Amino acid sequence: MLRWYQMKLASRPLLTQSVTTAVLFATGDVMAQQAVEKVGVEKHNLARTGRMALYGGAVFGPAATTWFKFLQQKINLQNKNLTIAARVLTDQTVFASTNLFCFLSSMAIMEGTSPKDKLESAYWPALQKNWMLWPAVQAVNFKLVPLEHRVFVVNIVSLGWNCYLSYINSKGN
User: Fold this and answer.
1) pTM of the model as a whole
2) Long-range contacts of 68-71 (CB under 8 A, 24+ apart)
3) pLDDT per 10-residue tile (average), the chain, 173 residues
4) Which of 2, 41, 65, 90 is the most buried (most CB within 10 A)?
């Protein structure tokens, strides 16, 4: 299975990362609904899971793949540790904040609710939680993980993070 994934990653990186991300975003939502909210299979909100998969595959997967390539090509300092710190800082100030804004806004639009209300209630608390987790994850990711596997590493950690995002996104709906 790993060899097949590696081949697909080499031949179609953007598509492979996008499909993988869609599946893992949906999985994070299933975890939120079943393990955290305990709604049960009968009351599982498939539309919500679908929205998460759509966002993961159509927005986050392609954006993260392109973003990591950009960071790899454009942020290179003379000191390797400074390069990693600069990439983490850029990732957390530019990409994380923008992605969270896009996530909450697009979820609200797909749900037929107010993006303004969603952002006012959830953006700042979620961004603060993001900064508790992701700088350390990204520092390790940028230091130890080859470029082609960085989105996958983020996706694995994101199982828990997407569970959290799905949960906070669904509060008040």
Assistant:
1) 0.88
2) 68/147, 68/150, 68/151, 69/147, 71/142
3) 84 92 93 92 96 96 94 96 98 97 96 95 94 96 93 88 81 60
4) 65
